[in-house]
RidA family protein
Amino acid sequence: MSVIKISTGSPFEKQAGYSRAIKDGDWVHVAGTTGYDYTVMEMPEDVAAQAEKCFQTIAAALEEAGSSLNDVVRARYYITDPSFADDVFRVTGKYFGEVRPAATMVVAGLIKPEMKIEIEVTARIGAGSAA
């Protein structure tokens, strides 16, 4: 079984030596994703807008791997301030309210000051269709 590396074209991927996602059989591991709009390399100011952008980038990587947000079985959220939790929950609920993956939220420092959230997920292709 081959491993497929998926890239968004972000300059960070090459610079730091990682793939946005790795497809290994039915599993898709999506790297920690921040709210950058990689087409213009801008970061929204608002944490909810950053979370929305994270989900857009993650969804595109999953789609390229033949998967979707519905297949996500594990999510990890890293926020830089505990006061962001409610704003982030509104966004995660929008995308995962029915999917309900196992999830963890951690308050942590991120590598650039403009980053307020980072999201990492694991999906299993076909999990979204399981009863």
